[in-house]
Amino acid sequence: MPRRIMKLMRAILGDRLFVYLMKQTFYGHFVAGEDRIRIVPTLTRLRSFGVKPILDYSVEEDLSQEEAEKREVEASVSSAGTNLSEDSADSLPQYSVDKTFADRRYKVQSARTYFYLNEATCERNMETFLECLDAVKGATFGTGITAIKLTALGRPQLLLQVSEVIMQARRYMMDLAGSTGNILTHHKTIQDLERYLGNVSDKAEVKQFLEKVTSDKDGILHLFPWTGIINEDCQLSETFRVPDPVTGQMRRLISKIPPKEEEMFRNMIRRLNTIVKTAQDLDVRIMIDAEQTYFQPAISRITLEMMRKYNTEKAIVFNTYQCYLKDTYKEVCTDLEQAKRQNFYFGAKLVRGAYIEQERARAAALGYEDPTNPSFEATTEMYHKTLTECLRRIRILKDANIDPKKIAIMVASHNEDTVRFAIEKMQEIGIHPEDKVICFGQLLGMCDYITFPLGQAGYSAYKYIPYGPVNEVLPYLSRRAQENKGVLQKIKKEKRLLLSEITKRLAKGQLFYKPKGKYVPI
After folding, report:
1. Which residues form the Proline dehydrogenase domain (predicted)?
2. How far is CA 75 from the centre of its chain?
């Protein structure tokens, strides 16, 4: 039921009849209710079967393609000009805006998209997320989760620029390390960096740079002081500079950012800090969704620093990893290594991913390497490999009498084979449901035959729960209706099970029978 058909139905039936019809059908199946009060019966019923919620207030703007493109282009270019680094020959095309792909909904059905309008809108988004946290706390006895997107909290241009800086920093270290990859994986020391800089390392500005490099006994973790960045007290233009090994002059990895946009970045970090601090105070967890690869280096870096700041006693902040990407296994291993070296609790949600068709089309059009795996099977292999590594490291923690909850993983998948693989690997490696380190998640209205048995068997099981007024969640509902053929294939078994259940109920005269659970979520 595409969006235009829904709009046509509303025009023909009128608002009242349309809303009633949606509540009895599509909306009633995929959405829990209109507000935090009306969702309680759904949450209570799920809880009775051992299933916990991930709440998401799914109201979206119903923008035209033209309006979405206009907003994105305006919000993705600095008022100072291009986002690219000062030497255009070294710029990375992946991290620049392109009008063809400015509507980030292009080829994306299963993910919500925020388009920046102004700072006031970002403030309202923050308030919505805070209300969501309060709803989770009030209705789930402290076992719930809220999902958020970083693009809802700030100007996308800033995420593009920070993402490019991170990749430029990796390029800079490549000359020193002789290989590619995340900086901390090279295990290079401050002394190695000094030797690389040679005679220019005695210069005052170079010394100041070296003093701010984050390192430990195993080597350099970060070239830049990310602690200051997430504490809202830095100037990006001055922070992201590295010394030229030949001249010793400090070279910016980011174009000059005007003071107003520096303030916008600090506002974005302030909003995220406010949300995560509230989650910590309410004992609720936060899952920060993955987005497109041109935003993701910045999103992951900021999320990891939020973990370092707030995940000191338990996993409150979770990052999301899309397994259709070629580098997912390496990125997860790198982030696990950072968590270990900086002694914080690591939380991860593993998904197949929502943007694969858009990513492939964008890479082909802009001329950079396709970041995605070549096939569904390769993505499955990546998912299973990454999950196995996480389970292996959890087992190492258990064997060393270290809290195994230092690593917490959500297996977010509607694929029955992947869920079965996870359970079998848990048994093989010796990780039990009561360890509370692995949980499972599916969308409300999909794959109940997976979620409910997991909850009843004592596994930590979640449903992703959208809620919001009928007319305002139509964009969400239209995406659910346009899910790709793969999802439709996956629910064939569910339709067969539902038909079987309806037949049984008709035979027993119990068509409107509602089972009652007596389970307690772990």
Report:
1. 42-491
2. 21
pTM of the complete model beyond 0.85: yes
- pLDDT average, residue stretch 85-95: 64
Read out DSSP for 367-402?
Answer: TS---B-SSHHHHHHHHHHHHHHHHHHHHHHHHTTS
11 within 8 A of 471, measured Cβ to Cβ: no
Sequence-distant (≥ 6) Cβ neighbours of residue 143 within 8 angstroms: 52, 521
CA dihedral sign, ordered 196, 162, 97, 334: positive
Please state, in angstroms and rounded to a whole number, the distance separating the CA atoms of residues 26 and 478. Answer: 10
Backbone φ, ψ for residue 114 (5° rounding): -105, 135
Residue closest to 59 by CA, chosen among 37, 34, 41, 40: 34
146: β partners: 55, 286
Mean pLDDT lowest for which of 81-85, 118-122, 328-332, 421-425? 81-85
Query: Residue 348, SS3?
Result: strand
pLDDT one-digit tens code per residue, 132-190? 998 888 765 566 899 999 999 999 999 999 999 999 988 888 887 777 778 888 888 99
- CA distances to 117, 299, 330, 421 from 180, rounded to whole Å, are 37, 20, 11, 32
**Which of 174, 183, 215 minimizes the C-alpha distance to 334?**
183
**Sign of CA pseudo-dihedral 466, 472, 475, 477:** positive
Q: What torsion, rounded to 10 degrees, do the Cα atoms 58, 64, 65, 69 define?
A: -80
Q: Which pair of structure tokens corresponds to residue 17?
A: 């009849």
Mean pLDDT of the chain: 87
The half-sphere exposure of 95 on its side-chain side, counting CA atoms within 13 A, is 27
User: Quick one: CA torsion of 134, 414, 300, 357, rounded to 10 degrees?
Assistant: -120
> Which helix (H) or strand (E) element contains residue 160?
helix 156-177
Q: How far, in Å, CA of 172 to CA of 110, rounded? A: 36
Cβ neighbors of 146 (< 8 A, separation 6 or more) are: 54, 55, 56, 129, 132, 133, 136, 279, 284, 285, 286, 287
Give the C-alpha separation, 220 to 181, whole Å: 13
* DSSP letters spanning 483-508: --HHHHHHTHHHHHHHHHHHHHHHHH
- Strands 317-322 vs 214-216: parallel, antiparallel or unpaired: unpaired
pLDDT band, very low/low/confident/very high, at 85 (cuts 50, 70, 90): very low
Amino acid at 465: I
C-alpha span between 304 and 212 (Å, rounded): 19
Do 30 and 477 meet the contact criterion of CB atoms below 8 Å apart? yes
Amino acid, res. 313: E
Q: Would you give the DSSP letter of residue 433?
A: G
Give the angle 205-210-216 at the CA atoms, nearest 5°: 170
